[in-house]
Design goal:
Blueprint (H helix, E strand, L loop, with lengths): L9 E6 L6 H12 L3 E3 L18 H6 L2 E2 L12 H15 L5 E6 L2 H9 L9 H14 L1 H11 L1 H6 L5 H14 L3 H4 L10 E7 L3 H17 L2 H7 L15 H7 L5 H24 L4 E4 L4 H11 L1
Parallel strand pairs: 1-4, 1-5, 2-3, 2-4, 5-6
Helix pairs in contact: 3-4, 5-6, 5-8, 6-8, 10-13, 12-13
Amino acid sequence: MSHSHTPYPVLIVIAGPTAVGKTRFAINLAQKLETEILSADSRQFYHELQIGTAKPTTAELGTVPHHFVGQLSIHDYYNISRYEQESLSLLDQLFGQNQSVLMVGGSGLYIDAVCRGVDDFPDPDPELRNYLKGILADEGIAKLQELLKLHDPDYYRSVDLANPNRLVRALEVSMATGIPYSEQRLNKPRKRNFRIIKIGLDLPRAELFRRINQRVDMMMQDGLLAEVMGLLPFRHLNALNTVGYKELFEYIDEIIPLELAVENIKTHTRRYAKRQLTWFRKDEEYTWFAPDRLDAVLEYIRAII
């Protein structure tokens, strides 16, 4: 579908909690609009993580061109800034042939990076990061809090002081550049050369939780435990510090029985879904639909574009 003469192409964001049905919905919508899909699900970037991340199946990937699915190894370093740059570069190409492109996923930070931009922070200095992690290990989180108060009192007052990753990131930016992290954070959205339509998918809570539980059971049937066993040597990598993998590592370590590990995956996935909904609901640009309302969404989109 070529509309390259149209001055403002449209990025259609399809967001929502895990297990709500984004994959199937987006494929059906992309087929109707004759366009392509960018994944904004950071767990699906890694080709080694198949079952536990609910990646689109080979058949699904074959129906519509997908981007940012399985393009990385768990050993690769990747960050939101790179995702923003690579997505914008790809969108420039895709908008040459398509009036609209879909971005689909549950990772709010990654969606926001493309829609609004992220700060051009330097990549972390491995030595500085190791130094700060060493402080955390040897002296505890209180020492990091003390350092942050010294280097960036403004951010110290607003950050979640119980989150060591946020403290380390703020410190490494502040210490590497000599400029407080809070002064370098972006305050206004970057201008984009495309319009953005944001669609949120949601279900009644009981139905969403039923789907989550059912999907975890299906993952176990499909061989999730074997997948996790095969990744055991790499369990220290950040990509594996995620729901569905950490719980089964605890079972493999004989800390908990398998039934409890599976129950924990369900519980933690339900909590994750609640956090996703909280994130997306804060953004008033989303218009919400049930995942079986494809025709209504199409009507809504066509009225805008």
